[in-house]
Every structure is written in structure tokens, then in C-alpha cells.
Amino acid sequence: MSLFKRFGFYLFGVCLGLIFVAYFFKEKRAEFCYLPNCRTLKTIRTQDTLSFSPSVQSLIDNKKILEENIDSILTYGSVNFTKSKIDRSDVSSFEVCNTYYIDGYVNKQPVELVVYNCKFSAEIQKLNRIASQ
User: For this UniProt entry, which segments traverse the membrane (predicted)?
Assistant: First the structure.
């Protein structure tokens, strides 16, 4: 078999493989969170229950903030790990909750979410407006 024929068979196999990969994996929306900020936000977003404290719920009810704004902060925000209170012990208890401070923007205004993140649930505790500099 000549080298030209071998190269043709190789290209045919590569094309079939590319079609296979493109067809079966086109709708897969994978998110690769390797950095601590991304992992923390994804963990909060994917909790079994995500609830709001009464003060945050009143802001939502009075339409001062929308749930979409909170979702946006939990997707694109920046976790302030220096202010956050994180339990780094090896004890994995159901009652151990970490407190995260997440910086983001609502209507181009800087805000800070305070989130209690437990094993199976997360609660948005406060929404603090940050004074512009």
C-alpha cells in the first residue's frame, strides 16, 4: 500500500472521529471550575436549597433587587476569601457552615453578598451596598 493511500485512510478516520465527537458532545455544557473562586460559587449555586434571609427576601419583595441579580452575582462574582470565615478542620459535620463574602454588581453599583454555606443548603444572609470610591 502506497504512502498516499495510507494518508487517505488516516484522513478518512480522523474526519469520521471529528463528526462523531461533534455530534455526540455538541449539547454538553461542561463547566471546568479549577480555581477556588469558581469552585466556591458553583458549590453555592448547586446546593439542594438556596434560601434568603428575611431582610434579603424583603428587598426582593419590594423589587429593590431581582433574583436574577443575585444569580448573576453567584455566577460572575468574586469571593473575598480574606473576609470569609471558612472552617478548614477535617471534621465534616452537617452543622458546620462557612460564611462567604461575595463581591459583585447590581445596576452598576458594587454590592456584597453574605452567604452561609452549609453541607446541603445555602442562605443569602445580607446584601450590603459598597460605597463607591
Answer: 7-25
Q: Do 45 and 78 share a structural domain?
A: yes
Of 43, 17, 32, nearest in space to 116 by CA: 43
Instruction: Determine contact, residues 102/41, Cβ cutoff 8 Å.
Output: yes
Residue 10: give the domain boundaries.
1-30
Please count the other Cβ atoms lying within 10 Å of the Cβ belonging to residue 66: 13
Does the pLDDT at position 48 exceed 70? yes
Confidence band, pLDDT 50/70/90 cuts, at residue 118: confident
Instruction: Name the one residue in this structure whose C-alpha cell is 478542620.
Output: 89
Mind listing the pLDDT tens digit for each residue in 76-117? 999 999 999 887 776 666 677 899 999 999 888 899 999 999
Strands 98-106 and 121-129: unpaired
Predicted TM-score (pTM) above 0.85: no
Number of domains in the chain: 2
Distance in angstroms (rounded) separating the CA atoms of residues 7 and 80: 54
